User: Fold these one by one.
Assistant:
Number 1:
Amino acid sequence: MNEQTPHTPSRRKVLRTTAAAAAAGTGIGIGALGGPNAQAAVAAPATSPESATAATPSATARRRLGPTMAGVPFPGRSTVRVALVGLGNRGNGLIGLYLALPWVRVVAVCDPVREKAERAAAKVVAAGQAAPALYTNGEEDYENLCTRSDVDFVHVATPWDSHYAIARAAMLGGKHVGVECPVAMTLDELWDLVDLSEQTRRHCMQLENCCYGRNEMRVLRMAHAGKFGRLLHGAGAYNHDLRALMFSPTYYEGPWRRLWHTRLRGDLYPNHGFGPVANYMDINRGDRAVSISSFGTPALGLAEYREENMPAGDPSWKETYIGSDRTISLVQTAQGRVIRLEHDVSTPHPYSRVNSLGGTRGVFEDYPARIYLEPDHKDDQWADFSAYAGEFDHWLWKDHANPPGGHGGMDYIMVYRLMQCMRLGLPPDFDVYDAATWTAPVPLSHASIKAKGAPQEIPDFTRGEWRKARSGVDSVKPA
């Protein structure tokens, strides 16, 4: 399951079972990825991204099929029972974060590569827990895992094309589910996850969202305290040189990630940048993202890298890359604010998520972190952001000053807080509406680039609930 090229049968099975939901709106679709040997050849979907126009009917709110999930608490429990689906680079690295929490039990693991599942199970046993059940019988064995009665939460860390199907199976099986980004790849899939969350009363959440970084949480609290005045603009990005990894024969299980650059022209990974800025601006909690306009450069970087590094006869030579080397998107909010998103994984540059916020009283910019606020600063010179740590660091970072795990500890903070909410019966800090909003730029940026930058409507996945203020990542410490 994890990091293998998804194959067509799984996709067809999902589409057959969701035809009724898809009929509610003709969304921007993508073709199923081919089998493990597939390269540039792609089965043409009913609605191809290459034929997409500026019209996006699925942006229109669909009829609600169940009560809102905004602010709905988890049922409290003394122990949270977790299953992990996908045990490659990302999934295998997450197990230790769950095992570090004494009230969490890892009860099942799933990956079609049995060695990966066994490696994960060994970690669970070494931590003093009972051996988890293994699900390794092909790429759809997650369906059997999702029928278990002793699983509360499913963590999905698989290739992107399988995210929707596994999240769907988890909710239909009565489980809350968290999905690595992006949570799905089309507007219809995003709407279907929203509908399923409301119908099943199970939360579906976007994980690896970069909202729990120390800087991000400090800026969030400062924004809510009014330090930036009235908010005007923000920016976020995923600028990360992945060329060597995407062409590596061992890092990913197959070429699935590189193949997305043969299918979509837009922002393939908006969540890291969009999530934190959406929190600063209370998107879905008083404001909402209403439209996106995207522009993309030519796709040159991957082909150049291939020419310089890949031998003649390598399967990658059959691929034609269309994904823009750099995508720049402008998101407009209902309150008139502007969010800039960037995506670039195909050219050489240092890592950056940009992470910027500006208002009527000043601005913060990250990479490196620096700040300028009135009346604190008056010399037009960047100031030391660490000076605000004592007053504005989030309680999670005060309680966990040196967290383990990837992304500078933010992964642990996210897992800790999510499991804490499940254990104590609190609403999650982020929900299916956030997942859908943060992921919508994937299909919509592609459509906008195809339409020469024409704005694309971002759906109101909350169906009007965004107008109501409610809590989010800037949470109050439980008693």
Note: The two ends are 40 Å apart (CA to CA).
Number 2:
Amino acid sequence: MNDGTITLPWLVIRQDDNGNRYRVGRYATRAEAQKIADSLDDRGHKQLYWVEQIGQNGQSATSTAN
């Protein structure tokens, strides 16, 4: 991060029961993103939440489903 910007490479993604996917938020660490995904998942709704990491090219590099 030499240019002074903050990098938020971890995404929390939500998929509803119709298959639509939405970005819930971006986070600095995997642990922070996973904590948010877990707290949303614990609410008991039918939506699926997972964590993805954005790669250097802006594409999703990894994903961790709950």
Note: The mean pLDDT is 84.
Number 3:
Amino acid sequence: MSEPTSLAGEAEKLDAADGLAAVRERFVLDDVTYLDGNSLGALPAHVPARVADVVRRQWGELRIRSWEESGWWTAPERVGDRIAPLVGAAAGQVVVGDSTSVNVFKALVAAVRMAQEDGPGRNEILVDATTFPTDGYIAESAARMTGCALRPVTPAEVPGALGDRTAAVLLNHVDYRSGRLHDLPGLTAAVHAAGAYAVWDLCHSAGALPVGLDEHGVDLAVGCTYKYLNGGPGSPAYLYVRRDLQPRFDSPLPGWNSHAEPFGMRPDYAPASGSVRGRVGTPDILSLLALDAALDVWDEAGVSVAAVREKSLALTDFFLRCVGAYVPHGRVESVTPAAHAERGSQVALRCEDAGEVMKRLIERGVVGDYRAPDVLRFGFTPLYVGFADVERAARVLARTLSG
């Protein structure tokens, strides 16, 4: 068993060599070891001033003029183009707005409609059986709406479950409980080989690891922006529609913002072209522009997703080493895959009385979260988490479990 001083010294050396270490200064942080960025990202330090300008000048002084003069009207597409490179997409394919749940609904119904246009008999939706609950709820509603049967399967079971009846498959890139990274390229290819459409939920991967939407031919994808993208509580989600599918994207929520002539006030609906089709109603400007400001961290610091992924794997590797060295044998069990190709940017530990343990961790200045019935989740946001944070978290966990 390693001595704490040894691993603490190693953490100090790793932080000194960390090429992303300076980015930490761009966030509002304190002495708390914050390992819950996979639920809510930290506040970028420049965001409050930007939001103040939106409120006081753009809204307070320019008022209605800001829809044009401050670029409010086109913000959903503009901010979408800023997110696009973080998920491996070219411009013009990502639009920001609504919640993840709403965007899952839009994407899944549109995918089924396209599949049913392609040919008869496509009347089954496959959904990740281990999915975040809201995706399952939405999938069930979408199935009823489109006359499809809903079939829950694990991601590993998807290739064997695909068939002539499959219309669409809804999958999570990273499992929210375990942190398992699923095979987006391979599963997307399998879905396409069966003549179906792939819809991916990127909530736990965007901003933490490469996604490659364009490279791997993903049809549709959705994601939130308040985790690794640090957009703030309730910041709007986004919707990706592959460019060649945009003319066929038939949204089940055809709001006035996605109309070809939104101010024409026509009684009949005519969809706009491009990613605008993914819009519904009036954008949430305050939260949308807070997100826009938060994304500056990526541009101004010159951060690449590849560098973030490299550090993410190093952080999670080091955390697992520290847990193995400090925590009494048998008290926790990692349910996060050891293989890098199968790991997101979190570590989930199965632990007896996990809810109470996490409560005591938080009281001692280590913030993660708990998922019923017995999982401690620790999220590692490479933009502001360092190796000393990792070592301290493991050390406090060991002390908490020991008494």
Note: The first strand starts at residue 33 and ends at 34.
Number 4:
Amino acid sequence: MDSPIWLFLFGILSGFALLRVPLTGFLEPVNPIVDVIGVLAVLLFSIVLILKGVMHLIDSRRR
């Protein structure tokens, strides 16, 4: 398995971690921004993994 695949998987996990982190105190106002960044990270890395999987299926059918 390619190492970028693991990086994309860890990117998804870090996006979920950003969604679950509790921000209190002076960081509480940036909580909506952190949530948006977490959702975007999960969506982006998931789409990239899906596209890489489809590209691999298409490439393997050509052989």
Note: The first helix runs from residue 3 to 20.
